[in-house]
Amino acid sequence: MSQTIEVNNILSASVPTRSFFLSAISYLPPDSGASTPTTVFNDQHDSSFFQKLPLEIRKIIYSYVWQGPYDHMYHEPNGRHLHFKNGHWVHTRCVMYQEDDEDPDLIQKQMDQIRNSGRGDLLLWQRRLASTWGQRHWRCAERVEYGRPTSIDRTDLGALMVVCKMMHPEVIESFIECHKLIFNDVFSAHRFLLHSGSTRPIRHIRNLDLTLSVPFYELRPFMGSSDPTNNDDNAAAPMASLTGAQKSRLGAIFAALAESPTCMHSLRVSLDVYDRGPWRKMPERALASHLERIPIRRGKRGEVNYTVEFPSALPIPMQWSGFGELDENVCEVGESRPVTPSSMPFKVTRRPRLRYWQFIPGEVEHFNWLTNRDAKELRHRCFLVLSKEATFISNPYELEWAGRSGRSRAG
Questions:
Q1: pLDDT tens digit sequence for 74-128
Q2: Which long-range contacts (CB under 8 A, 24 or more apart) does 383-388 make?
Q3: Cα 352 from Cα 134, distance rounded (Å)
Q4: Any alpha helices (H) in 264-343, and if so which ranges?
Q5: Burial category of 384 from C-beta neighbours within 10 Å (exposed 0-12, middle 13-18, buried 19 and up)
C-alpha cells in the first residue's frame, strides 16, 4: 500500500510538464564577444519520474496514454496507418469496422447488388476495388485522400513530445510498441523500416501489417527469365538470388525484418500487383523464400501469428520462372524441397477472384474466368471473358513477352 502511495505521489508531483521544461531554460549573460544567448537544458537529475521510476513502469504509464474511447469500434483497435506525405510522417487510425469489413469479397458483393438492381455507383466501388491500399483498407484510403484528420485520429503523441526532451526516445518507442503499424505503400515502408542511425524504430515493432500493391517492375528482381520456346515453366532458369532481390525496395524491406533484432508478435503481409488490370500473378515461390526468414515470436501455446496473403490462384500463362503458386507440390530449379504452405512458417490466404474491372474509361464490366487444358503444352490455361459478349481479354504478361521477343529478333 505504501508503495502505491509513493508511486502516485511521484506521478502527481514529479512528471515534468511543458512549463517546467520551459522554465528550465536559462539564458547566460552575454559576454563581450557574444551577440546571441546560449541555451542550457535541464537534464532532469532531480525529476522523480526519471530517477525513481524504472523504465518498465514509465512504459506502462505511456501505454495508458495511447488508449482511446473509440478503440472498441474498429477491427484493429490499435491500428495506425503510417505514410510519408509532403515531407513528414502522417499517422491515422485504421477505420475498418469489425463486423462489416471482415469479408474479403465485400466490395464485389456490393457490385453484384448494383449490377442486379441497376441502382448504385459501380464506378465508385470499382475505384475501391482497384485501390492500392488493398480491399481491407479502402475506407482508410478514402479518409486520407479526401478527408482530414478528426478526433478519432487524435493521440497525445505531440503533447508528450513537447513535455521534455528526455522523454522523446521513450515516447516514440512506446508508441511503436503499443500500436499495430500498417504500411500501404512501398516508399513509406522502406523509409521507415530501413531508417539508419542509433534509434532504429524497427527494433521496437511488435505488430506489423504490410499491405503493399506494387507495380510489376518491383517484382522483376524476384524472377528468373525463361526461354520463350520452352513450354515447361518449372524447367526455367534459376530464380534471382537472394542478394540480387535485396537490391529492390521490396527485398530490402523483407531483409531488414529478417536481419534486424526484432521482437514481433504478429505480422501480416498482403502482396498484389496493380498495373496488370485483373491479371494478378506474383512470384510466390521466390517471395516465400524471403518471407520465411522473418522471425515471429511464438505465443504461449506455440502458435505463430504470421499470415501472407496472395491473389487468387489462377493458371495464368507466364514466361518467367518462379511464378508457381505455393499450392503446387513441385520443386523449382535449385530447390531441395517443394515450397508449399505446409512447409512455410506462415499461413497462406488468398483473395477472391476479381470479376469486375474497368477496361474502358467510364464503364465497369463484369467478366468470368474460363480454364481449359492446353493439349499441346499439357497444362491448364485461363482466359478472361466478358459477360456481355464472348470477347477475350488479352493476357498482358504474354503480350509483354511477345513484344520483348520481337524486339530481340529484330535486333
A1: 777 788 999 888 888 888 888 887 666 778 899 999 999 999 998 999 999 999 9
A2: 384/278, 384/279, 386/359
A3: 12
A4: 284-291
A5: buried
C-beta separation of 321 from 237 below 8 A: yes
List the alpha helices (DSSP H) in 35-105: 48-51, 55-65
Average pLDDT estimate for 275-281:
88
Cβ 75 vs Cβ 96: under 8 Å:
yes
Q: Which residues contact 56 (CB under 8 A, 6 or more apart)?
A: none
Task: For residue 214, list its beta bridge partners.
Answer: 273
Count of beta carbons in the 10 Å neighbourhood of residue 163: 19
Question: Mean pLDDT for the chain?
Answer: 76
- Range ranked top by mean pLDDT from 3-12, 17-26, 187-196: 187-196
Identify the sign of the CA torsion 46, 51, 52, 53: positive
Measured between alpha carbons, how far is 142 from 274 in angstroms, rounded to an integer? 18
Residue 84 cell numbers, joined: 510519408
- Torsion of Cα atoms, 274 then 280 then 286 then 292, to 10°: 80
pLDDT at residue 198 in the model: 54
Higher pLDDT: 80 or 69? It is 80
Separation between Cα atoms, residue 325 and residue 285, nearest integer Å? 7
At 45, which amino acid appears? H
Amino acid at 309: E
Rounded distance between C-alpha atoms, residue 68 and residue 230, angstroms: 59
pLDDT class of 183 with cuts at 50, 70, 90: very high
Distance between CA atoms of 47 and 383, rounded to whole angstroms?
70
- Count helices and strands in the chain by DSSP H and E runs: 14, 15
